[in-house]
Design brief:
flat; binds guanosine-5'-diphosphate; binds magnesium ion; 21 helices; Four Helix Bundle (Hemerythrin (Met), subunit A); 434 Repressor (Amino-terminal Domain); eight-stranded mixed β-sheet; Rossmann fold; alpha/beta
């Protein structure tokens, strides 16, 4: 697993906080020390670790949690500060898209090209791969076989020495694909002729994205690595591979984030499915083992600024939830069981509003299926599921390997949840409690 040691320490820390009778300076100091030690073991840069510890301690002790319990406050600070050192999530638009992959030998470029192809294919898009690595004779066969195994289009020409010609021909051969992914040659180091070659390919291809592939085992050096590639050819994102095998993953991730380059994906194994869209939010939640309470902390307990609180209340009261909300809830449900229990954790001190429970009781299997289907939706569709009709249903079904009926079933589930949320709005007692919780009255 990714960063096992760090995960274990973080979970222990969260548990210690949760189980403590009260939160005092000593508890916070000890927690911070443990976390710092684990971060250093994960190869995170010393000054970053020191600074992080300082901020956690300061905020945990000095900020006055308005409406939040002390323990929740400390956990929230941990979560926010850890998240901050991982940078921002990179959204991946679902549209016509050309991606050029760059990087040195052996970093995982070719493997990752196929993984990305599979990722977009699962979104229901037509994907094509081009092999423009003219330096490694085996590269052609390697990518061709991978392309066949995931059933996406492929173009390459093992007898051509000029990568720009391959690009030109490839663009013609694969002109009907939505997402085009181009694998390129590496070198042992960032030499002049590699820079030259990358620039020529880039100008021939006009990619929307240039992603640098970095092996996590180089640790903190990933920062400098990312910077020099950016200077040479201009990168729009980084993919850190072999996160499964390296103890230095923490160093690689934080060093890259520090350069300001977004981390797009992480590679977590040798198989084509071993790729994760990188999201600091869920990454940290998982490390902390709080996938389940994250939604609660964020949506309800967080003492949000007045304006955001208003938005949130309106959203809940009007039942204007998105598929992203449903997705988060599914995660919680998969972890914790019935929605009823999740709701009981909400600090309302009231019962759960009257709902038709049978409507919300669905099998774990179905929940998992729903998650896969939501994975195949675009951001736009997740925000506004009402646009999902006709050909969109077909595309989503194809991308997620499910039937159109299953997609419709999820849409129905979504409508039920919406109605359920609206019942917050109709129940005056609950409504008042919610308003009070959000400090609006
Ligand atoms: N464990 C693990 N191995 C990986 C990952 N990504 C790539 N590899 C392996 O790294 C080696 C080099 O990969 P390759 O794609 O050929 O690198 P390239 O030279 O940059 O194209 C291969 O043995 C891959 O199976 C990953 O995320 N995890
Ligand atoms: Mg390769």
């Amino acid at each position: 697993m990714v960063l096992d040691n760090l995960k274990e320490t973080l979970r222990k820390s969260v548990n210690r906080i949760v189980n403590s009778i009260f939160v005092d300076r000593e508890l916070i100091r000890e927690t911070v020390k443990d976390i710092q030690r684990a971060l250093l073991l994960a190869d995170v840069e010393v000054s970053l670790v020191v600074e992080l510890g300082r901020r956690i301690e300061k905020r945990a002790l000095e900020e006055r949690p308005r409406g939040l319990g002390e323990k929740e406050h400390v956990i929230k600070v941990l979560y926010e500060e850890l998240k901050a050192i991982l940078g921002k999530k990179k959204e991946l638009p679902i549209k016509k898209y050309r991606i050029m992959l760059v990087g040195l030998y052996g970093q995982g470029k070719t493997t990752t090209a196929a993984k990305i192809a599979k990722y977009f294919k699962k979104k229901g898009l037509k994907v094509g791969l081009i092999q423009a690595d003219v330096h490694r004779p085996a590269a052609y066969e390697q990518l061709k076989q991978l392309a066949e195994s995931i059933n996406v289009k492929f173009y390459g020409n093992p007898s051509e020495r000029d990568p720009t010609k391959i690009i030109r021909e490839g663009l013609k051969a694969l002109k009907d694909v939505d997402v085009l992914i181009v694998d390129t040659s590496g070198r042992h180091a960032l030499e002049e002729d590699l820079i030259e070659e990358m620039k020529r390919i880039k100008s021939e291809l006009s990619p929307d994205e240039v992603w640098l592939i970095i092996d996590a085992s180089i640790g903190q050096k990933a920062g400098e690595h990312s910077r020099v590639f950016h200077e040479a050819v201009g990168i729009t994102g980084v993919i850190v591979t072999k996160m499964d095998g390296s103890a230095k993953g923490g160093g690689a991730l934080t060093a890259v984030a520090k350069t300001g380059a977004p981390i797009v994906f992480i590679g977590v194994g040798e198989k084509v499915d071993d790729l994760e869209h990188f999201d600091p939010d869920s990454f940290i939640s998982r490390l902390l083992g709080m996938g389940d309470i994250k939604a609660l902390i964020e949506k309800v307990q967080e003492v949000v600024p007045e304006k955001k609180a208003e938005e949130l209340t309106k959203k809940i009261l009007s039942g204007r939830i998105t598929m992203n909300d449903v997705y988060e809830q599914l995660e919680a449900l998969l972890n914790m069981g019935p929605l009823k229990r999740v709701l009981e954790l909400l600090p309302f001190g009231f019962g759960v509003p009257q709902i038709d429970e049978s409507a919300l009781e669905i099998t774990q299997e179905k929940l998992k299926k729903f998650k896969v289907i939501i994975d195949s939706m675009t951001e736009e569709e997740r925000e506004d599921p009402s646009i999902i009709r006709g050909s969109r249903i077909t595309r989503i079904a194809r991308g997620s390997g499910s039937s159109e009926d299953e997609v419709r079933e999820l849409l129905k589930y979504y409508e039920q949840l919406k109605t359920f949320y609206k019942s917050f709005g109709r129940n005056r007692k609950l409504r008042r409690a919610l308003m009070r919780q959000l400090k609006l009255t």
